[in-house]
Amino acid sequence: MIRIGEIPRGGLLLSSEPVILSDATIPEQKVVYLLKPRGFCAGVVRAIEIVELALDLYGPPIYVRKEIVHNRHVVEKLTARGAIFVDETEDVPPGACVVFSAHGVSPAVRDEARRRNLRVIDATCPLVTKVHLEAVRFARLGFTIVLIGHPEHDEVIGTLGEAPQQTRVVSSAEQVDQLEVPDPASVAYLTQTTLSLDETRHIIDRLRERFPLIQGPPAQDICYATQNRQEAVKAVAPHSDLLLVVGSDNSSNARRLVEVSECLSVPARLVDDASEVDPAWLSPAQRVAVTAGASTPEYLVQDLIAHLNRQRFDRVEEVELAQEDVRFALPPELAG
Ligand code: SF4
Q: Which atom of ligand 1 is nearest to the CA of 47?
């Protein structure tokens, strides 16, 4: 059972008298369940603010290595303000100002920036930095590190760079079976911050079977924002006919929200914005749940709600599963 408050049309305030969401109360009119928490996490808010402040303080152009966060709309807006997104540090002119993205970078990238005499502002999310520090600690202790994550993701590439010789990346339980390590008694695992909670648990279980002495991080690496958004989908998707996730295709945490819903046999679609919604998805649906990845701005969610309103989804109910009040401090050079 989920306690929800009905939202008056045109407003997004929770009612003081929550109602109970259950399959016994399937609404007669088309309804949108708007999940909360959704959208921006503290690491994304901080990263975008860093680029905006750098533009204000130093003036354009400000170079940003990789997408500051994985959202097309955010990148386009910052580009319009004078940010230049590059793939590698070598693409930044010597002496210029470069921002490292929220996903973090390897020590080799930091070294290259120093060689090129770049002014570096680091927008790495502190929760990603925590994983880097764990990698450094395990590496110094001589452990083989099993990094659970997607090998092509910027965050995994950055963490791997802390101890490339000692780190193996796995993204499935099957890959655990193929691991070869020099000393099975000296193995540790870490994870990408934006993985599926359930899939990761499954992989860790397999690791514990293979390496009973394996060590892990003191607290799990999957971050609070990833966890809260997935838990909200798990709670509400079973009461819905369709889940719409607002987010870009390269956003790991947004894609995981789609997968979590699909695992519950509830169809889910990832859309960058309302224009990508196919009317054919909506016609058989009476109850549409809406959420957004951690790098998705709220105005895109509101645009989608307005679009759904025009498709006769008149009722919008916000379902709040957890409260978030996390904020991260700015880097000292911008803290003012
Ligand atoms: Fe940080 Fe988590 Fe947001 Fe990634 S999703 S930027 S780890 S808070």
A: 6
Percentage of residues in the chain with pLDDT exceeding 90?
A: 90
Whether ligand 1 lies within 6 angstroms of the CB of 225 is answered as yes
Residue 158, domain extent: 127-210
Contacts of 270 (CB under 8 A, 6+ apart): 245, 247, 249, 254, 255, 257, 258
CATH number at residue 108: 3.40.50.11270
Q: Does 154 lie in the same domain as 86?
A: no
Mean pLDDT on 71-79: 98
Alpha helices, H only, the chain: 42-58, 72-81, 107-115, 126-140, 154-160, 173-177, 197-210, 224-236, 252-263, 279-282, 298-310
Question: How remote is the CA of residue 181 from the centroid of ligand 1, in Å?
Answer: 30
Residue 330 lies in a domain: no
Q: What pLDDT was estimated at residue 17? A: 42
Predicted TM-score (pTM) of the model is 0.92
Which has the closest alpha carbon to 155: 178, 188, 132, 189?
A: 132
Name the pLDDT band for 318 (thresholds 50, 70, 90): very high
- Compute, in angstroms, the gap from residue 224 CA to the centroid of ligand 1: 8
Domain membership flag for residue 66:
yes
